[in-house]
Amino acid sequence: MELYNEKLEAEFQSKIDSGQNIEAKDWMPEKYRKTHIRQISQHAHSEIIGMLPEGNWITRAPSLKRKITLLAKVQDEGGHGLYLYSAAETLGISRAELNEQLNSGRAKYSSIFNYPAVTWADMGAVGWLVDGAAIMNQVMLTRTSYGPYARAMVRICKEESFHQRQGYEIMLTLSKGTEVQKRMAQDALNRWWWPSLMMFGPRDEESVHTEQAMKWKIKLKSNDELRQQFVDQTVPQAELLGLTIPDPKLKWNAERGHYDFGDIDWEEFKRVVAGKGPCSYERLKTRNEAWDKGAWVREAAMAFAEKQQEKSLKEAS
Ligand code: 3HC
Hints:
Layout: H1 2-17, H2 30-49, H3 51-55, H4 64-89, H5 95-103, H6 121-138, H7 147-175, H8 179-198, H9 210-215, H10 223-241, E1 251-253, E2 258-260, H11 266-276, H12 280-293, H13 295-316
Antiparallel strand pairs: 1-2
Helix pairs in contact: 2-4, 4-7, 6-7, 6-8, 6-10
Bound molecules: 3-hydroxybutanoyl-coenzyme A.
3-hydroxybutanoyl-coenzyme A binds next to α2, α6 and α9.
């Protein structure tokens, strides 16, 4: 039995090494299956919880155009959650279980969504920085080894890039606007900068999953590599806006060919991931209320599906 598993595992790894996808019905090590359920579901939860800070601004968007765009963006995030939950389900976990893990507070989701969005400029900063950081991490996931996840990510990345651009355009408008608008944009950048850098996860030496994730081609770049790439890409964008990144240690390092940047507050990161972020309680409360309020919709959909099934059985007999 052990020899049999070793052979299967060696075949599995060589499939990954040669760049082939693993599909839902293929043999896979139990740890690979569980790792994917963990990552895909955390990702799905992040999309769904990520709807909350921005959903809060739909009724207060400053114009009809802004409102329509924000509404579309928030709906996209809901769609991303659905593709990802479906990808997780192919690994043998039910949607009900995934939902229970989120609503009970047992599941993790991205730390970033535990921060409040307090002004309209936050809609710009979230799109520009948060979606910008998300794409940087997620483009590599379009080439991840698990087929259903990789395919879901292709569509998600296309939509995320529209999200990033709409955020940047809000920041551009504000930063070229009145003094008050420019101050609002700067204030939003000040509050979202460091939490955005934390989105990439712990430093490489503290990242427990990276080594295995790279072997299985789930991750193609490490947390620190992606964080550096994000800083390098974002600094010139901030300069174009005429805004200042809130980091006195930020400096171009010609020798490395990268920006050096200041220390991340890892204690804050750990606190937020442990469920003690500024909005952690509120996010889960809202999520649970939405689940309870939606009970009648789920019941109605089930009743309709049962009726349809009865009807087609009758017609067939
Ligand atoms: N927030 C919360 N938890 C985090 C985190 C963060 N920013 N970064 C890492 N963690 C958690 C990990 O989930 C892991 O917890 P676990 O062992 O209990 O599951 C632990 O910290 C150790 O971190 P590792 O670096 O070892 O973990 P990973 O190898 O899984 O790397 C990751 C973390 C880079 C986030 C990776 O899981 C990943 O690429 N996930 C898919 C993308 C994703 O989920 N992005 C979240 C944002 S989605 C989004 O922003 C929506 C968009 O619409 C804006």
